[in-house]
Amino acid sequence: MSSVKHSSDLGESVQEDQGLLSLQPLLEYGRLPWMRSSQRAADLYNSGAKLWTKDDLSDIERQFSQCYTTKNFIVRRVDGTTVQIPNPMYGVARPIWKPRVKFQEYWTLVHSEPDGPLETYYCSYLVDWRNQTHRQFEMPIKGYKLALQEKWQLWNESVTCESFKKHLRELLGTRKVNKVVCFGLGDLTARPPCWWRIQNNNSVNKEPEIGFVEGSMMQHWAALTLADMDPQFTNETKEIVRLKGFEIVGQYGAGGFAEVDDETVVFSPFAQAPVAQIIADIARPAIFIIRRCDENLDEDW
């Protein structure tokens, strides 16, 4: 015999089912926080939000320049909020750690989960630290001054130099350029790491360590005029570029970007920072010279 439930019975059954569902725990697992933040970062970027601004980069450079009297660093996130990062070198009389900017470029924010806590997921730049103790004991490469002069002469007399100048003149045309800003030129006098010295200990060259900085030398000579940003320069290298009439800015890795405007030539051969992405947010330089990027996002972007 068939039976029919009364409507009140059906309502009670639905309420019971909903009650049971409400008592069940909401299961969140896996990468849900990262998925939400990456989607939010992508939405912000697609709506026109800037990952970097000149003001932000100049501000963090200023904070780092006062790092030993600053208790906390303030970092602006891409969603407009800020976070405070404690300064472990605050009040230290003889600090061995120097702050520098660590960039988290677009692909880190939307494609590759950052290493830090959730609060850093919207940060396009963070605070990093570099130990300076080895600089106190390392002497510069032997014979670097003579090598610099030789490489300078070779560069000036080379077909590559002449071709480089020719292409620059053609690209510039009648456009006004007031400076050249360079990123990632490399140091000229810093000694190579121990593993490199061991591998090249039996080199036939009289000064094998010169080979370690030859690329940097040629890159410096290719940069004819510059406001250079490289926080890893030794004091000897800083003196060399100043004697050539150059200026070094952005000792902590961020301030050099504030020098770029629409009347700038940007030269960035092997910078670790995502220079192309940062420049795209803050300026449209007259010429941008950068290494060719391949399709491996993790390596080139």
Summary, kept brief:
The protein has helices at 7-23, 32-46, 54-65, 106-110, 144-157, 159-172, 194-199, 210-222, 235-243, 275-282, 297-300, and strands at 72-76, 82-86, 97-103, 125-131, 179-183, 227-229, 247-248, 264-268, 287-290.
Please give the order of strands in the largest beta sheet.
Answer: 7-6-5-8-9
How many strands, which pairing sense, and closed or not: the largest β-sheet?
Answer: 5 strands, parallel
**Could you spell the SSE succession in H and E letters?**
HHHEEEHEHHEHHEHEEHEH
| Number of helices in the DSSP assignment | 11
Q: What class do helices, strands and sheet pairing give?
A: alpha/beta
Helix content: 25-40%
Report the C-alpha radius of gyration, rounded.
Answer: 27 Å
Percent range for β-strand residues: 5-15%
Low-confidence stretches: 212-217, 224-231, 294-301
Description:
- Helix 5 crosses helix 8 (210-222).
- The protein is α/β, with parallel strands linked by helices and 301 residues long.
- A five-stranded parallel beta sheet has the order 7-6-5-8-9, covered by helices on one side. It has a two-stranded antiparallel ribbon with strand order 1-2. Strands 3-4 form a two-stranded antiparallel ribbon.
- The termini are far apart.
- It is built from eleven helices and nine strands.
- Residues 212-217, 224-231 and 294-301 have low confidence and may be disordered.
- Strand 8 (264-268), helix 10 (275-282) and strand 9 form a beta-alpha-beta unit.
- The chain has two domains: 32-136, no CATH class; 144-300, no CATH class.
- Residues 166-290 form the SRR1-like domain.
- This is SRR1-like domain-containing protein.
- InterPro entries: SRR1-like.
